[in-house]
Amino acid sequence: xxxxxxxxxxxxxxxxxxxxxxxxxxxxxxxxxxxxxxxxxxxxxxxxxxxxxxxxxxxxxxxxxxxxxxxxxxxxxxxxxxxxxxxxxxxxxxxxxxxxxxxxxxxxxxxxxxxxxxxxxxxxxxxxxxxxxxxxxxxxxxxxxxxxxxxxxxxxxxxxxxxxxxxxxxxxxxxxxxxxxxxxxxxxxxxxxxxxxxxxxxxxxxxxxxxxxxxxxxxxxxxxxxxxxxxxxxxxxxxxxxxxxxxxxxxxxxxxxxxxxxxxxxxxxxxxxxxxxxxxxxxxxxxxxxxxxxxxxxxxxxxxxxxxxxxxxxxxxxxxxxxxxxxxxxxxxxxxxxxxxxxxxxxxxxxxxxxxxxxxxxxxxxxxxxxxxxxxxxxxxxxxxxxxxxxxxxxxxxxxxxxxxxxxxxxxxxxxxxxxxxxxxxxxxxxxxxxxxxxxxxxxxxxxxxxxxxxxxx
Length: 458
Fold this sequence. Notes:
Blueprint: H1 24-33, H2 35-46, E1 49-53, E2 58-62, H3 65-73, E3 79-81, H4 87-92, H5 102-112, H6 118-121, H7 125-136, E4 145-146, H8 147-164, H9 170-185, H10 189-196, H11 209-234, H12 242-248, H13 259-290, H14 292-303, H15 311-315, H16 318-330, E5 340-342, E6 346-348, E7 351-353, E8 358-361, H17 363-367, H18 383-386, H19 407-424, E9 425-429, E10 438-440, E11 443-445, E12 451-457
Parallel strand pairs: 2-8
Antiparallel strand pairs: 1-2, 3-5, 4-12, 5-8, 6-7, 9-12, 10-11
């Protein structure tokens, strides 16, 4: 028997991972206007770890699955969220799940989880398909349309009805218009500069970009609080919508959520629940129609479904699921997870990180590792049928105790919207040139110029 040699203990470095030498302003401009090139260039040059920011409080990108596993499995109390004090903290509120840490985060997550349980979200199946049919009913043969605009209309209507249970009315109409306008106001790369440079967040009146955003946010807040107060006054707690379930929820001490907590979580669900899914759907339609073999396999799978009215069966289709997974792999909407701020030193893969270091497992770079995903720039749904990836190799919804609670709803919505559209319309891209993601607020998305045309109805 050959005696196994002991593994050498990796030498611990007191230095930070390599860091780009580009001046901060130029680096930020590249991050804003060319986010994918930014990550591809630095990932190729520096490998599994690279850091930006100050040496005292560095921001470290991590794309090594073993390191990501250690980050996701270490005691969650060892981290704070880097969201606190930033734009998302201001926009979503201090009680948003994204902005909370420790026991408060655990409490809020326990209160929010039940409405997103698999059995519960299946009650929204019919709503998703009906809204998709209503929105796409305006499509005309031969008339091009902007893909993102319609995907946003679908996902915003779904989230408003699923979250609030609102039927058509003035409040629903106002919320839809305000949320769409508010997200568009920070949606372009140029306007996103405000989010990365706080010095530009100046209220110069209703016609200034930041001033207009603040007034729209205040109006959305007013509508949300009105809805919460009306629900409390009417004591209507028998609905299936998420607001009703949250108002009925009680923590371990028997305490309900306050109006402020409800507002902050509703804003989080409204923003995160429709913007990201609209981006994913836009990409999915692009890939399906730029690769004929993908579309043919999907249509074959849908055509051979025994019961085409069984929405749960549609959501379980393997190739449709793989297309959605590959869509979120190749161009994830968030390029890194919610950043973690170390509350105490941590040794990771030979590096020693001090308190205050921000660790950001990078979704995009991990999803583009050649050793995990051969030919990572190619769209290949089959890779998800051939093997199962660990939650440290594939994590488009984040990981650990900060994984997106709406993951199951978002995946189900993607599959049902795509199945509804593909079963009814023969679509084509108006331009077959390859697309690259662009900055959209704090996320990346398909260009707003992406257009398709209806060739005919099926």
